[in-house]
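Design job #97: recover the sequence.
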């Protein structure tokens, strides 16, 4: 197989070839045994969230439905809305159909959901700390180029305000975010003997609708370079970016305070402070009251894995004409519904049960039919809609204590 990059193409994914071989062998065995018409409900869920995670964000559904559609699978799919904040032990998605029709697709479906949800969850946790401050995803350089747009989409849906990658931004229909690298500063220093000329030429060349945000940590002290940039560009300067390598960072809060104090003391009160380089949610939480914008890369691009798995939870008994709960040990059998009440109180019940919220209001049923074997895709959600849903939930979490409560109620009620 001669390809420039060791990646699967779309056709291989759609044909179900990007799978674990034991699913291929399972299909062969079931066909030989005459068990090719066994109808099941297979549930996708997370039994335990990553360490220190009280909640995660569910994304990737739109691509799963696209895969189901293009593969022509005769199944029904039920799911939470894409962008839902969820807890462990809650069903996220259920596929209903003949098992052998979708067996080989377990691997790619899990890959889509786990990768998307892991990145989106970390992006949401970062945005939760930053909230009304801008958060941009700068993680493309940490990833293989063919999946960079997917990571950009996942980070954007998780709450990031923009992405730096050109193709990723194009997919999302938004302008790419970013200004200048240290390399630009170094080239001007090497040839022109004055790195500040990089700011001047950037101002001359780059389109006027691009904010004049300049690096101020390349050769001199951050507050010194920030003041030099302000004096050089004046009112055209929109912001200064601090991207000090972690080995020289020291107390980042103290550095930001110095830069902000110095600029305001000199009368440059409208210059924004942008911080990037090695940031995580804890650092952002420490700086969010001082900093106007954050550029976050590796911690979102390589997040803790949200470990979504798939298990059969019911099978259809032809003799009785009924669905029968059945699953392996350690998992909760049966087709389930998740009802959400205010304050992120979730109730997991048998699918056709009902609950009342503690305050007497009607709960929101989160598991909905999203794909019909006859009609196809029943929901079409844009990345911006998913992001809006996430941000609305983060705001609600901020009003509470940041927790989602899950109650398992075997009989409903």
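Job complete. Output follows.
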């Amino acid at each position: 197989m001669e390809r420039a990059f060791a990646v699967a193409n779309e056709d291989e994914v759609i044909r179900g070839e990007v799978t674990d071989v034991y699913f291929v062998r399972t299909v062969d065995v079931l066909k030989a045994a005459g068990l090719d018409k066994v109808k099941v409900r297979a549930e996708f869920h997370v039994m335990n969230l990553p360490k220190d995670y009280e909640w995660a964000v569910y994304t990737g559904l739109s691509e799963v439905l696209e895969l189901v559609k293009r593969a022509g699978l005769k199944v029904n799919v039920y799911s939470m809305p894409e962008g839902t904040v969820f807890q462990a032990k809650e069903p996220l998605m259920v596929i209903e159909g003949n098992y052998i029709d979708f067996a080989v697709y377990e691997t790619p479906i899990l890959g889509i959901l786990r990768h998307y949800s892991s990145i989106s969850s970390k992006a949401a946790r970062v945005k939760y700390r930053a909230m009304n401050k801008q958060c941009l995803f700068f993680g493309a350089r940490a990833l293989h180029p063919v999946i960079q747009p997917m990571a950009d989409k996942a980070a954007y849906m998780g709450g990031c305000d923009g992405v730096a990658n050109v193709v990723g931004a194009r997919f999302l229909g938004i302008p790419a975010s970013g200004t200048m690298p240290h390399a630009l500063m170094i080239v001007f220093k090497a040839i022109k003997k004055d790195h500040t000329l990089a700011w001047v030429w950037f101002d001359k060349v780059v389109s006027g609708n691009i904010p004049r945000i300049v690096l101020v940590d390349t050769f001199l002290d951050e507050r010194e370079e920030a003041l030099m940039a302000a004096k050089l560009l004046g009112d055209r300067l929109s912001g200064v970016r601090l991207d000090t390598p972690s080995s020289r960072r020291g107390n980042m809060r103290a550095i930001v305070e110095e830069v902000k104090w110095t600029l305001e003391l000199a009368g440059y009160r409208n210059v924004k402070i942008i911080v990037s380089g090695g940031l995580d949610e804890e650092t952002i939480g420490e700086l969010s009251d001082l900093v106007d914008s954050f550029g976050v890369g590796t911690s979102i691009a390589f997040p803790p894995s949200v470990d979504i798995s798939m298990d059969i939870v019911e099978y259809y008994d032809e003799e009785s004409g009924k669905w029968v709960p059945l699953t392996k040990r350690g998992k909760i059998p049966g087709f389930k519904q998740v009802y959400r009440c205010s304050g992120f109180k979730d109730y997991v019940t048998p699918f056709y049960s009902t609950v009342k919220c503690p305050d007497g209001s009607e709960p929101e049923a989160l598991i909905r039919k999203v794909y019909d074997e006859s009609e196809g895709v029943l929901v079409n959600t844009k990345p911006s809609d998913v992001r809006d849903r996430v941000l609305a939930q983060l705001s609600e979490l901020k009003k509470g204590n940041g927790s989602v409560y899950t109650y398992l109620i075997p009989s409903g009620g």
